[in-house]
Amino acid sequence: MKIKKFHAKTFSVVLKMVKKELGPDAVILSSEQLKENMVEVVAAVDYEGINLSEPLGAAEKPTDLSELKSEVERLKEALVQMKKSGYEMKLPDKKLRILKLLLKRSVKEEFALRLCEKAGNAESLLNVLTEEIKTMDALSAKKAVMLIGPTGVGKTSTLAKLASQAIRSGKRIAIITLDTYRIGAVEQLRFFARILG
Q: How far, in Å, are 159, 185, 196 from residue 179 at the CA level?
């Protein structure tokens, strides 16, 4: 078994270091916030593995029932700690709830951790998100605006709104689509273009 301490400014950076050096089978043994901007994580990985072809010797029997109960409790606690990942051990409940919500919404773990580290609560999360997400004024684009994204996120609706704003600003527009996969996509854009003039 190889055990190693890692230090970094954030949990996400430490977790990357652990995965890079010890691999995906590494287990977080402990984590601690040392300073305001320093995190320590102790991680381990077992290189030997378990050889199931050789029988294991019998476990020592505890001498009395109280010893057995304390051993069971110790094992339960060890299992609970093993289930927790590094950020769950150290993040306060509010931030952990925000993190789990972001992960459930398919936000990349690295980005979700960065947001949680910056946000103190749900209200400040909105401010952090506003800072993190880069925006631009689409009408200030000199040549073209391209909308890319998965099905159903509102690209066509956004295109119609942008085109409408551009026409109201006196700009000439052309709408071009590469969406020949979705049934009626071209007709829908043609319809929007006719409405806009």
A: 13, 6, 20
Work out the angle between the directed axes of helices 122-132 and 93-104 (0-180°, nearest 10).
Answer: 50
Q: What are φ and ψ of residue 90, in 5° steps?
A: -110, -25
**Judging by beta carbons within 10 Å of its beta carbon (0-12, 13-18, 19+), is residue 45 exposed, middle or buried?**
middle
Residue 82 phi/psi, 5-degree rounding, is -70, -35
Place of tokens 């378990």: 50
d(CA 177, CA 189): 8
User: pTM of whole model > 0.70?
Assistant: no
Read off the pLDDT of residues 4-35 as tens digits, 9 standing for 90 and up.
888 888 878 888 898 888 888 888 777 787 77
DSSP single-letter state for residue 6: E
Closest listed residue to residue 37, CA positions, set 79, 7, 75, 6 = 7
Q: 152: phi > 0 → left, psi -120 to 50 → alpha, else beta; which?
A: left
CA distance 112 to 137: 26
Strand ranges across the sheet with 38-45: 2-8, 38-45, 27-35
Q: Which is it for the CA torsion 24, 26, 30, 34, positive or negative?
A: negative
